[in-house]
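**Sequence with structure:**
===
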Amino acid sequence: MDIESALGGVRQLRDAVRERNPPPEEGAPSPDDHVVMFSLVRNSRGYIERVVHQINGAYASGWYDACAVMIRRLVETLIIESFEKHGISDKIKGASGDFLFLRDLITVTLAETSWNLSRNTKQALPRLKDVGDLSAHSRRYIAQRKDIDKLVQDLRVVVQELVTVAELKR
């Protein structure tokens, strides 16, 4: 048997296994929590837990742009949850009633007096936004593992603080 025939057989076997055992409909839990410790969001909201699994799973798979975009989404979600918990979500909505873009969400969050964010969170929020923006909007930027690695401590501080502000833990 030549190599091409063997590879063809392997592909057929892989496709047959995947057809009989597709990935879970709602996504799978991540095998590790290298980026966001799952304990920070456990028992919060199901959609927040799934986003954290996607962040960690994308990182574990080496999909760093996907990881960065999901980090951006998590930060945005936690900011919105914080404003909604305090009954002041109108502060982060535009004239059409839609939520502001992340840049403006962060600006309003940093100025909000209903809570007192730590100095570390205030410094970290713009950095988290920047990498997510580059991965989402820059044609030529491709995130690398070190781009995510340098955000882990900032992300830990921001996630824990916003989960607390939004009172998401049961």
User: Anything to note?
Assistant: The chain has seven helices and no strands. The chain has a mean pLDDT of 93.
